[in-house]
């Protein structure tokens, strides 16, 4: 029976799923206190980050830096957690699938799991390691695209994603589901002024390459070096002029077919593959 099918009732006062292990840092059961809000885009307008879906939630449960406030699970999901020996930092609340549907809407594929959690802190851009690749997002606002980009970033071991505190989607809900656990892996660095942040990366030795269809060179033909920052603009608008002017190079992605432009999340994958291959990061 799927999580969307009707599930059996449980007795009032009973604790279905109580065989799921709960733990804290010392192995004791506990209920975390509510922490103060930290600098992040994970908090939605109503407070904590809302995470749902199997990969998204189990990655959050496994992240010791993530403070879980509430965990809603269906009986089917509770059995799966137990079967796969996945521990939870707090005791789950067993609910019907319809209770999660009411929180998210009927079209959300939650797989019987929903978490409310404190946001992860946003690192300072000056703390980024001067090696490998970082991605910089210039006002990409679609949460599906940003989530897909984060998932690809995790696959290519990207050191961080830099984006603006404004004009970027909240790292919760749809974005988190699209990221499929990557929120717990790739640091999300928030800045107030993207051009100033890029100038800072230039000063710290990063090669900053903006991706634009009007770029003067093909990305595959540029001599790339570490640390590398690949800068992606929003679909339609592309890179803003000040962003383009601040990059150390502006490159295009050449393709042989009749359609020469890609969805921004697909462009990110291609750029990361080219970058990682040219830098010798593909092991």
Automatic annotation (TrEMBL):
<protein>
    <submittedName>
        <fullName>23S rRNA (Guanosine2251-2'-O)-methyltransferase</fullName>
        <ecNumber>2.1.1.185</ecNumber>
    </submittedName>
</protein>
<keyword id="KW-0808">Transferase</keyword>
<keyword id="KW-0489">Methyltransferase</keyword>
């Amino acid at each position: 029976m799927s999580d969307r099918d009707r599930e059996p009732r449980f007795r009032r006062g009973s604790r279905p799923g109580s065989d799921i292990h709960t733990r804290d840092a010392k192995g004791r059961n506990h209920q975390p206190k509510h922490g103060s809000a930290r600098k992040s885009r994970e908090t939605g307008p109503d407070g904590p980050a809302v995470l749902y879906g199997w990969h998204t939630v189990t990655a959050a449960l496994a992240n010791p830096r993530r403070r879980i406030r509430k965990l809603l699970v269906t009986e089917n999901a509770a059995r799966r957690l137990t079967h796969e020996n996945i521990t939870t930092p707090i005791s789950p609340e067993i609910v019907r699938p319809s209770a999660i549907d009411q929180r998210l809407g009927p079209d959300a594929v939650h797989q019987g799991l929903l978490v409310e959690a404190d946001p992860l802190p946003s690192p300072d851009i000056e703390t980024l390691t001067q090696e490998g690749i970082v991605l910089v997002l210039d006002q990409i606002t679609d949460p599906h695209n940003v989530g897909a980009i984060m998932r690809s970033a995790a696959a290519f071991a990207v050191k961080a994603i830099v984006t603006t505190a404004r004009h970027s989607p909240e790292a919760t809900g749809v974005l988190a589901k699209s990221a499929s656990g990557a929120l717990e892996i790739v640091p999300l660095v928030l800045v107030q002024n993207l051009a100033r942040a890029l100038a800072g990366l230039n000063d710290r030795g990063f090669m900053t390459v903006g991706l634009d269809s009007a770029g003067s060179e093909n990305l595959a033909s540029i001599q790339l070096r570490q640390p590398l920052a690949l800068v992606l603009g929003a679909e339609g608008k592309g890179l803003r002029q000040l962003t383009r002017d601040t990059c150390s190079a502006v490159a295009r992605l050449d393709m042989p077919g009749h359609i020469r432009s890609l969805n921004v999340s697909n462009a990110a994958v291609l750029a990361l593959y080219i970058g990682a291959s040219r830098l010798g990061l593909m092991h």
